[in-house]
Amino acid sequence: MAEDTRQNILECGRDEFLEKGFEGASLRAIAKAAGVTTGAIYGYFPDKKALFDALVSGPAREILDQFAAIQEGFAALPPQRQEAEMIQTSHEGMDWMMEHIYRHYDAFKLLICRSAGPDYNAFLDQMVEIEMQSTFRFVEVMRREGKQVREVEEPLIHILVNSFFSGLFEIVVHDMPKEKAAGYLNGLKEFYTAGWFQILGL
């Protein structure tokens, strides 16, 4: 019974946040929709932020953990395989992220479009940091292998990585059907793959 009540509150909270955003959402309205008192909500969630986090934190953490695991697995490959498999690994990781986003679409719609700004910014910053660390490691591996990799300043790498993830999440901002998003993602793959090879001189 308690779990059913909690789930009902979550579903009504999701609808309220999707409609009004984090700032505009009201615990009173959520309680009314769920058929409970505001005090009952506090029995499950200490505040509005905790309720919002319960809706988005699991899928967000999963994408961060899986993305980090993909990068760590790639870094563990021998240098020759890293060079040969870099594009495939990158593209497979993008495909996984898109599938994950559409499996948990409401959670990402809330995080990207309906959250308080710091929530999304913190999530985006973590994605960018994982990718930047992976990029630096790959460059160092290629240099140790004797490849002539151009010097690229860290701020430029940050801008490019940030712009990629911001672009990826546009599929949610614009509510793209999954099939259309897949085509959009293919365009991003082509654009950024060619761009990175050009900038790094590989």
UniProtKB/TrEMBL annotation:
InterPro entries registered for this protein in UniProt: DNA-bd_HTH_TetR-type_CS, Homeodomain-like_sf, HTH-type_TetR-like_transc_reg, HTH_TetR
Keyword set, alphabetical order: DNA-binding, Transcription, Transcription regulation
Domain of life: Bacteria
MF terms in GO: DNA-binding transcription factor activity; transcription cis-regulatory region binding
Keyword field contains Transcription regulation: yes
Keyword DNA-binding: yes
PROSITE patterns in the record: HTH_TETR_1, HTH_TETR_2
Protein name per its UniProtKB record: Transcriptional regulator, TetR family
Native organism: Syntrophobotulus glycolicus (strain DSM 8271 / FlGlyR)
